[in-house]
Amino acid sequence: MRTRWIIALLLLIPLSDALLLVPVAGELGYLATVALVVLTGLVGMMLVRAEGRTTLARIQQRLAIGELPANQLLDGGLLIAAGAFLLTPGLVTDTIGFLLAVPVTRYPIRTVIKRYVVKPYLDKRADGFVSGGVWAGGFPYPDDDDDVYDVDSNSYRYDDDTDADRSN
Length: 168
Known about the structure:
The chain is an all-alpha fold.
């Protein structure tokens, strides 16, 4: 079911690009539209390159102090996706690429991805230990059982009859 939505989305993006480029080309002219698409792609790639360097430096800083750079690795993945969208000609893909490349919009997107993609995946793989949705309070059975006796260490005495028999 999910595969159908992904395929539909991948087909919808180029379709929306084509449907948007036609009225923009009619308004601005064909050469100006091509120049706009090329210019947004070039500016976007320069932005992705600069953000990629910053993200790589943050990854190295986190690793140098012995911390896991999870957020920075997600940022790196989002920057790779931004680069792919910016290389694809079209105004819709350039807009998506800019949204993924600019830190102001990338950080909320990263938070949403962590909440709805990464955390459920890790919970599924670790049986709930990532989010704490695991039973950790003992056995999940009611305490109605009358065969259970609580005994502390002072009230329990163990006599070994075999030692007494050996000494006689």
